[in-house]
Amino acid sequence: MAIAWSSGKEDYLDAPYLRKHSPSAEQKGESDIFGNISGGSSSGDYSNVGIKGFDYVGNYAIRIQFTDGHSTGIYSWEYLAEIARNQS
Q: Among 59, 60, 58, 62, which Cα is nearest to 74's?
């Protein structure tokens, strides 16, 4: 996925990287009121995952549909900029 920011900067995030960093509870787990995280599946081989499409969530985010059926993560523009900065 290519993103052209209003600053003129451009970032490219490939589908496996986006899938691995999905902000969904299914991927990252959920924390309770004490900060304990349960669930989540942060490991996995996403090398063959592609993007089927996406939907806008208001003006602040997108929801990406992946070829492995995952579509529950809501990627805010702020989160996308963060993971773009942190990709190696």
A: 62
How do the domains of the chain map onto residue ranges? 2-86
Which positions ≥6 away from 77 have C-beta within 8 Å?
A: 60, 61
Under 8 Å between Cβ of 26 and 70: yes
pLDDT at 45: 83
Written as one letter, the residue type at 52 is: K
Q: Could you tell me which residues are beta bridge partners of residue 38?
A: 30
**pLDDT per residue as tens digits for the range 36-63:** 655 556 567 899 999 999 999 999 999 9
Q: What is the fold, at CATH topology level, of the domain defined by 2-86?
A: NE0471 N-terminal domain-like (3.30.2020)
Encode pLDDT of 61-75 as tens digits: 999 999 999 999 999
